[in-house]
Amino acid sequence: MPGPVTVSIARHVDPSQEDQMHAWLRAGTELAERFDGFLGSGWVRPGVDSTQWHMLYRFDSPESLEAWESSAQRRWWLDSGQGFVAEASREHRTGIEGWFDEPTSVDTADLRTAAQPPPRWKQMVAIFLVFFPLSLVANELARVYLSDWWLAARVLLTVCVMTPLMTYVLLPWVTGLLAPWLHRGRA
């Protein structure tokens, strides 16, 4: 079952249009708030003088995100930014990987409903709950079936199998199961 999706977009902004950019961000957020599944949005700048702004928005499912991204309202909003903002890159993030890129500063268009990342110790527990049993199984299988392999080759194969399993299957599943606990007490 897919979970929330965060979209991270880097945009270049004409420095002389900063006030318009603030208004444009507020308008986009107000439009997105009207769509089912909207969880929040915000933006991050690497520095005060940076022309690159990193916009974030989050929806509760890929379907809710698709409804927003294919909407006439969003197309109108994007068209209204022509001339002072240009998209440089786009990423969709799910599961735990978004927790590893903490911004150094945040200025928000609207973060009142955006989920904050869980405390590091809770992230550690979630990772441990996946890594420990997976590591046990992988090491036992390697011991039984690959005992005559050179240690470095055996470890390399184990890591190459475990990493995608953890990243794309097991961590998203476990973080979904633990979501109430991971986010308890967070705004």
The gist of it:
By secondary structure, this protein is of the alpha+beta class.
Report on this model:
There is one protein chain. The protein has 187 residues and is α+β, with helices and mostly antiparallel strands. The chain has 5 helices and 5 strands. It has helices at residues 18-32, 62-69, 72-80, 120-145, 151-182; strands spanning 5-13, 38-44, 52-59, 85-93, 107-110. The chain has a 5-stranded antiparallel sheet with strand order 4-1-3-2-5. A hairpin with a 7-residue loop joins strand 2 (38-44) and strand 3. It is elongated. The protein starts with a strand and ends in a 5-residue tail after the last helix. Mean pLDDT is 79; it is low at 96-115.
In the predicted model, the low-confidence regions spanning at least 5 consecutive residues are 96-115
Number of strands: 5
Order of helices and strands: EHEEHHEEHH
> What is the mean predicted local confidence, pLDDT?
79
Structural category: alpha+beta
The profile of the biggest β sheet is: 5 strands, antiparallel
What's the shape? Answer: elongated
Sheet with the most strands: spatial strand order? 4-1-3-2-5
Roughly how many Å is the radius of gyration?
Answer: 20 Å
Question: How many DSSP helices?
Answer: 5
Terminal-residue CA separation: 24 Å
